[in-house]
TrEMBL record:
InterPro entries: 6-hairpin_glycosidase_sf (IPR008928), 6hp_glycosidase-like_sf (IPR012341), Glyco_hydro_8 (IPR002037). Residues 1-24 form the signal peptide. One of its GO terms (molecular function) is cellulase activity. It catalyses: Endohydrolysis of (1->4)-beta-D-glucosidic linkages in cellulose, lichenin and cereal beta-D-glucans. Keywords: Carbohydrate metabolism, Cellulose degradation, Glycosidase, Hydrolase, Polysaccharide degradation, Signal. It comes from Rhizobium favelukesii. This is cellulase. Its EC number is 3.2.1.4. Gene3D superfamilies: 1.50.10.10. GO terms for biological process: cellulose catabolic process. PROSITE patterns: PROKAR_LIPOPROTEIN. Belongs to the glycosyl hydrolase 8 (cellulase D) family. It holds the Pfam family Glyco_hydro_8.
Length: 349
């Protein structure tokens, strides 16, 4: 276990500073920003509240909450979020988390299927916190989830290693146009840590094939990926879903830069494609290339700002540097962006 802790410390930029000293502060989220975030989104029970989605909670939000609590160097908040996660969502018999919890319905879990991005985020945050705070129980829980992911949703199909969005409903046995993937579910920074927790060559192939597929997903005049993609033959927007670069896909560039992906052509294409004429990020109708919803919230704008920092050295505008929580999702992206720039590109602040 101690060797695993050391390996995880060495593998992740986010945990490196905390591993160096027991007194180390969080790598990138200041107490004021974290305090504002948790005051708005962290329920006393330990659940992260999605206030733009009928105040439900989900495995993605719990994973983000754990990661942000780690980045804020807040073990007490981390444990609170983890308690809710393990007691209310880790109910499946395969080691993965049920994805949807609704306070207005009893029983609260209204969809027992998992969401693989949430599982990845939970396992990743547990591994980082376990390494930084010498919590072997967190590492053990992370290893179990990594193995469950490897066993149930990391699959080989058509010569590629893929991440199914969930155990049920997305494979070729479930749909005629399957497998279906969501490119934004690849949390690239987490994958090397999963390979330490549950060793397999499949993890590296998952990362490599995810990037290769992402480069090939150039749909419509703006050459953007869809939120949901069929890989039955060649990649194409999946039937039954809106053919759009939507709220899911907006986080892809942030995931790429946080993982150290330095493909300027890919990052620039995504940034340009998701930006309306006035410079505002937007969801995009893939067929027409026209913006569907303009997203002026600083938490969405920071995605483009971080990409500009990484590719061109552009400083973040003041609006992105100042954090005030708005809605759950953009506020989460905002803190992840600030944490990354503070750690890796302080020259952009």
């Amino acid at each position: 276990m101690k060797r695993l802790l050391k390996l995880i410390c060495a593998a992740s930029f986010a945990v490196a500073a905390a591993c160096q000293s027991a007194q180390a502060q969080g790598p990138g989220i200041n107490p004021q920003a974290w305090g504002a975030y948790k005051a708005k989104f962290l329920d006393a029970s330990g659940r992260i509240v999605d206030d733009a989605n009928a105040n439900i909670s989900h495995s993605e939000g719990q994973g983000y909450g754990l990661l942000l609590a780690y980045l804020a160097d807040s073990p007490a908040d981390f444990e609170q979020i983890w308690y809710f996660t393990r007691t209310e969502l880790l109910l499946r018999d395969d080691g993965l988390a049920a994805w949807k919890w609704d306070p207005a319905v009893t029983p609260h879990v209204t969809d027992i299927n998992n969401a693989s991005d949430g599982d990845l985020l939970i396992a990743y945050a547990l591994a980082l916190a376990g390494s930084a705070w010498n919590r072997s129980d967190y590492i053990e829980a992370a290893a179990k989830m990594a193995q469950a992911l490897l066993s149930h949703v990391v699959v080989s199909s058509g010569g590629h290693t893929l991440l199914l969005p969930g155990v049920s409903g997305f494979d070729s046995s479930d749909r005629k146009d399957g497998p279906i993937v969501n490119p934004s579910y690849w949390v690239y920074e987490a994958i090397p840590i999963m390979a330490l927790l549950a060793p397999s060559n499949a993890w590296q192939k998952l990362s490599d094939d995810g990037l290769s597929l992402l480069r090939s997903m150039q749909f419509g005049p703006r050459k953007l990926p869809a939120d949901w993609v069929s890989l039955d033959h060649m990649p194409e927007p999946a039937k039954g879903f809106d053919a759009e670069f939507g709220y899911n896909s907006l986080r892809i560039p942030l995931y790429l830069v946080r993982a150290g992906v330095s493909d300027k052509a890919l990052l620039s294409r995504l940034r340009q494609g998701m930006t309306a004429e006035d410079g505002t990020p937007a969801t995009i109708n893939l067929a027409s290339g026209k913006p569907k919803t303009l997203l002026s919230d600083p938490g969405y704008r920071i995605v483009n700002d971080v990409v500009a920092c990484v590719t061109d050295g552009t400083k973040l505008p003041e609006s992105s540097q100042q954090f005030e929580p708005s809605l759950y999702y953009p506020s989460t992206l905002h803190l992840l962006g600030l944490a990354f720039v503070g750690e890796k590109h302080p020259e952009c602040l």
